[in-house]
Amino acid sequence: DADVTQTPRNRITKTGKRIMLECSQTKGHDRMYWYRQDPGLGLRLIYYSFDVKDINKGEISDGYSVSRQAQAKFSLSLESAIPNQTALYFCATSDSGVGTQYFGPGTRLLVL
Amino acid sequence: QQQVKQSPQSLIVQKGGISIINCAYENTAFDYFPWYQQFPGKGPALLIAIRPDVSEKKEGRFTISFNKSAKQFSLHIMDSQPGDSATYFCAASVSGGYQKVTFGTGTKLQVIP
To answer: What would the pLDDT profile of B21-40 be if each residue is shown by its tens digit?
Structure first.
């Protein structure tokens, strides 16, 4: 969905490095989410934010941190990357209605 | 804790056949059940959704069947086409307030000619 953009689209990094994945949206939604996708495990929630001043841990937040710089921007950081953080990462937004999630195109991360 | 169980993990269907994907949930507070479709290299996108006050919802070739008493819902794709080949995720959430969506583990569908 072009309304939700993620950078970079692909990233290779080494164990112990700090990296940041960025997400921007033009949908005007207050709610933003970070998920990781692994084969056979589906989509798992890392962090979510319901407005600029609200940050909440998801089910797998260990090893990750986030920053909500503005309504439209939500960044995910891996403080010290490890190989089992190799995954496909998605940012998503939703409005305050029925909860439909609008996903970005994803970032494929490889940690060596 | 897996709150939404999805099966099968993968599915191969011939063109023109019916594809069926099943999901079961545990949390009776869930009141919104969407299905997302994901093509390779893309993010998931909403395909169709249902609320528990109806037992079936149909949009074109896609139908959701919902069984509240059994806490199960399923996606049926009629006249499956090669262009339907994708990964499908069921999901569930409690609408209003703090909405978090719980996703199933996904089903990779391949429709062969």
So the answer is: 999 999 998 999 999 999 99
